Each structure stands twice: as C-alpha cells, then as structure tokens.
Amino acid sequence: METLATLGPASLFMISMTLTPGPNNVMLTASGANYGFRRTLPHLLGILGGCFVLFAAIALGLGIVFERFPIVQTLLRLVGSAYLLYLAWGIATAPPPRFGAVEGRPLSYWQAAAFQFANPKAWVMGLTLMASFLPEDGNTVVNALLLAAFAELVALPCIALWAGFGMAIGRWLKGPRSWRVFNGTMGALTAACVLFILG
C-alpha cells in the first residue's frame, strides 16, 4: 500500500521536473528540429536509460558518495559544464539541414545515457525522488528498480514533447538564416545551463 500511495506524488514530481527546461530538453528540441523525431529517438531513449541507472544507483548508495566526498560533486559539475559547452558549440554551429540529405549526427543512445551522470538536474531529480518516494517496506533493490522504472515511464511522454516541439519548429524554419538563428539560440540556451550548474 505504501508503494502505491507514493506513485501519485512521484508522478507529479517527475512531470514537473521533466516538462521544465533543462539541458536534456533544450538538446532534444534542437535535435528534433535538425534531425526529426525518428532520428532523435536514440537520444531520447538514452536519457531515459541513463536516468534509470543513475536513479537506481543513487537509491542503492551512490548518493552517499556526494556526502562523504564533496570533491566528487565539484568534479562532476566541472566535467558536466565542459561537456555541456562542447555540446552547445556543436548545436550552435550545426549547418542548416537540407531536404533529403542526412547531415550531421544526433546524440547516440550511449552518449545521452552517459551524459546523465554529468547532468546536475538528473542528479537533483534522482536524489529527491529516492529520498522522498522510495518505500521503506519491502526489498530496497526491488523498490529502487521499480521506482526508477516508473519515473522514466512518466518522463517518456514529457521529454518526447520537447523532441516533437523541435520537429514542429523545424517545419516552420525557412532558409539558412532562420536555421542559423535557431541553432545559435539553442546553443546559447544549452550553454546557459552551465550558469545553473556552477551557480
């Protein structure tokens, strides 16, 4: 019963966290616009897979590393910021897509999954989710896996909206100049996430 009672609040928490802007959603929007929804799917699924592993690992003790070794959190912020700036540059300088041509390459499943371990918003989500909604009764491992899986199930349509939103924007952009402005804006927004990471 305790497990079932936590699903409603956990759903609301995940919806509020995954519908709001963040590095993942900005990059999914840019990818959806530049590559379309289908080619963005590995990126999208990589976010879900990476967060599932991260959330489960936090529940099983990884979060304690932050408490005992604050330097790990600092290093994570620096690595995450550097990688985010690298991705932001790639987005900002991406050439406009050409109809019928396959140019550039969206983030792969494994790249997106690995990024979650350097993504502070994913860490905040995981730490809050497991601290607030992990049931105390029953097997901890099973509960952690089920809660992490449920969280990603809720997150799926939320982040898919951002990729779909990007795809819709891509259909409205006409000409190289509008694409340069769009990609430059998406790159700047991605880079701006570093301010929240280091702030």
**What is the chain-wise order of helices and strands?**
HHHHHHH
- Apparent shape: globular
**Biggest β-sheet strands, sense, barrel:** none
Q: What class would the helix/strand composition place it in?
A: mainly alpha
Count of structural domains: 1
Number of helix segments?
7
Count of β-strands: 0
What does the radius of gyration come to?
18 Å
| Helicity level | over 70%
Low-confidence stretches: none
Average pLDDT for all residues: 86
Strand fraction: under 5%
Distance between the termini: 40 Å
GO cellular component, one term: plasma membrane
Pfam families: LysE
Protein name: Transporter, LysE family
GO molecular function: amino acid transmembrane transporter activity
Describe the structure.
This protein is mostly helical and 199 residues long. It has one domain. It is built from 7 helices and no strands. It is globular, with a radius of gyration of 18 Å.
Helices and strands in order, then pairings?
Elements: H1 2-19, H2 23-68, H3 70-92, H4 109-115, H5 120-133, H6 140-172, H7 175-198
Membrane topology: Multi-pass membrane protein
Organism: Halomonas beimenensis
GO biological process, one term: cysteine export across plasma membrane
Concise structural overview:
The chain has 199 residues and is mainly alpha-helical.
Provide the descriptors you would attach to this structure in a database record.
199 residues, mainly alpha, 7 helices
